[in-house]
Amino acid sequence: MADHAFHRPGPLKQTNKAHKTGRHRSKGAIDNALKGKVGLKAISHKHKLQQRKEQRRNQMNQLRKNKRDEVLQQKRQLGGQNTAPFLVCLLPMHEHIDANSAIAILQSCDSEIVVEKSASGIVYMNLPRFKQRFAFVVPPVGRGNELIVLDYLKVCDTTLMLTSAAFGDDEIFDRWGQRVFNMISAQGIPTPVVALMDLESINPKRRIAAKQSAQKFIDKLLPEEKVMQMDTAAEGLNIMRRIGGQKKRLLHNVNNRPNLFGDLVEYVPNGEMGTLKVTGYLRGQSLNVNGLVHIPGLGDFQLGQVDAPPDPNKLDKKRDGELAEVRLLDRSDPAKQTSLQAENIPDPMDAEQTWPTEEEIEAAQKETKKTKLIKRVPKGYSEYQAAWIPDVEEVEGQEDDDDDDDDDMSGDEEDEDFMSCDNKSFEDECEKRESDTEEYLDSVSVSSEAAVNDEKYDQQMDFQEERETLKKLQQARTDQLWPDEIDTPLDVPAHERFQKYRGLESFRTSPWDAKENLPSDYARIYQFQNFDRTKRRILAEAKEFEGILPGLYITLHVINVPASRWSAFRSAHISDNVIVYGMLPHEHQMCVMNVVLQRIPDSEVPLKSKEQLIVQCGYRRFVVNPIYSQHTNGDKHKFERFFRPYETVCATFYAPIQFPPAAVLAFKVNPDSSLALVARGRLLSCNPDRIVLKRVVLSGHPMRINRKSATIRYMFFYKEDVEYFKPVKLRTKCGRMGHIKESLGTHGHMKCYFDGQLRSYDTAFMYLYKRVFPKWNYEECLVRSAEHSRQENEAEIRRSSKQLDDEAMEQ
């Protein structure tokens, strides 16, 4: 066998060239010199952060222990001997489900259970086996009681949703249940538990399929919840164990503030005012007796004192005789008490410099305003009939006001009740209206021959509301196809019609002063230097404040409650319970509120900007007319004329300050006076410096096209307008950029230069912007007396008639 050949190095070894490290030593040379020794100053910050395996494991165990202790602490804050009982809301998801039958099952779940019912309808159950206390409340069920259900769920700890297997697989939730679930899911459901009743009443062969069908239905709405059966006492005990042991889902808006669900309510009159005594368990955070409280339906009030009566629902009643008297916990200090002033009172002479001189007064008197004679003529009057109408009024020239929506659609004012005699097409309009009258008479004659069923159907329909909805849909569709595009008026110069507008080089980067040309209403509001920083400070102080501790059974003395408002509140509310919220500092002062809203899929009618909505933000509910803008990250936000379905916008309006997080629900009043949920969202900020810019787009068409220049017409109709808007940049539909070079003739033609040759089908646009502000029309949803409501209705009628008169005179 041949020997294997191996390579043996010879006497001449190859030596590679050593690496040159320069003037410093290499890392290997330094390690060899130090021989493992490390100096104290040589340890880097990264080396200090490095931990060994045992240290990391110990740190993870400490974090896990802290989280476990925090969860246990939250659980021990409810249901114990010295804490508030679990407040459970029994919510039937079907109108024909009786909640009292569910309470009867829960009462019989244990032989040692102690059941007591208060005068307000709250059922207290003490379960010695679990050493826990429970309180059950049942809101009124039926159409029209949705807002009461929302108020109950704001302060409850658990929501026990009751369903029934007796109504079939298709009616786990009926129509009312679906409606309520959409609302409470938008607000936030506190710790839901789903109970299926009447399963024993159906065929035993169908019970498993019925429960599976109910579980499949619930999985679509609440994927993490398991349907629990509740027909026997043992099943009721399982539900009680589930309520007392499960992890609580907190609503942060309520958890950050003290709240109290009234068990006993007493009103002590003192003339026109009185003191409202509300007794119950305090939940949430500690209560400040010098702060303000809010009662939904009544308003904001001050506290006189806080008492501590004996708790009638203790687990251990052997020591009840020790503290049978009522103790005074705290009394308000008038010097430290928060004021009820919600608006700032501006000084009319603020920033006034000097009195005008005689020369300035004479010069001002010489400058007469441009007025024109307007004769208010009803529709259909001929020119001869209009000549006999003597009332002639003087109005100023047409101005662009934020109240007018004349920028939206050119045909919005065609159906007003009055028209002007100075209209050039007056005779044509009269002839058109006469023909419309003849057509209407023909339609009346035809409709008289219709069937009786058609007449009954027509009587049930509100055709006025249907026509308004159709008009709104057409306007929203037009605005979607040609966003912000309007026609330049022929009879008014554009530099007068758009005198409040300006051009921007770039909507994203061009500056806009947030303190420029503010309305007078901004002098009535309050503003923070930094809203986010103030929010963090106030929420941290609320958690650390040591006042009336939560969990105590207390009596709040709410002072200066009007007797008329209280009597109207008692007569209007079906439930006898009163809910009291403790307010954080500054939460009663007016500011500009910005909320992010998203349309509900069921709502398909577009909402016009400045249209009235009922908004529920946190613990408040009020009526406003918001303006909408795009929800973007820039410092300027484009005004939206319509809030369309499947869109997300930011709504701005005047409202009292609230600190997020807070859920927001927007309702629209239906023709039958019921409420329809149209949008849901969250509170963004209370910042008056949010800039909302309304855009108008003036369009022009190319008449002659050269290589890089073109003659544009139909954008303006006066030479002065071309010179006035010459600095504003032009854009085209195909993406070209350009500017105005010079005016051609006296009828608005202009020569423009672009960065490329225009197409024959291209269109030139000019974007103009102005800042818009919401109108001060905030109104709290309070229950008022009949006399006060009558006075408000008369005032609303006067305001509406005055607005119609103003619109007619402007035309």
UniProtKB/TrEMBL annotation:
One Pfam family linked to the record:
RIBIOP_C
Q: Where is the composition biased (Acidic residues)?
A: 391-419
According to the UniProt entry, which residue ranges have a biased composition of type Basic residues? 16-27
For biological process, the GO terms are: endonucleolytic cleavage of tricistronic rRNA transcript (SSU-rRNA, 5.8S rRNA, LSU-rRNA); maturation of SSU-rRNA from tricistronic rRNA transcript (SSU-rRNA, 5.8S rRNA, LSU-rRNA)
Cellular localization per UniProt: Nucleus, Nucleolus
Q: Name one GO cellular component term.
A: preribosome, small subunit precursor
Which keywords annotate this record?
Nucleus, Ribosome biogenesis
Specify whether Protein biosynthesis is a keyword of the entry: no
Please list the coiled coil stretches: none
User: Its Gene Ontology molecular function terms?
Assistant: GTP binding; GTPase activity; U3 snoRNA binding
Which PROSITE patterns does UniProt cross-reference here? G_BMS1
At the top level, the lineage of the source is Eukaryota
Region entry Disordered, spans: 1-28, 46-75, 330-354, 385-448, 790-811
Q: Does the keyword Phosphoprotein apply?
A: no
Q: Which InterPro entries match?
A: AARP2CN (IPR012948), Bms1/Tsr1 (IPR039761), BMS1_TSR1_C (IPR007034), G_Bms1/Tsr1_dom (IPR030387)
Q: Where is the composition biased (Basic and acidic residues)?
A: 424-435, 790-805
Domain Bms1-type G: start-end pairs: 84-249
Annotated family: Belongs to the TRAFAC class translation factor GTPase superfamily. Bms1-like GTPase family. TSR1 subfamily.
Biological role: Required during maturation of the 40S ribosomal subunit in the nucleolus.
The protein's name in its UniProt record: Pre-rRNA-processing protein TSR1 homolog
Originating organism: Drosophila hydei (Fruit fly)
Per the UniProt record, the lineage of the source organism begins with: Eukaryota, Metazoa, Ecdysozoa, Arthropoda, Hexapoda
Q: Which gene encodes it?
A: LOC111601648
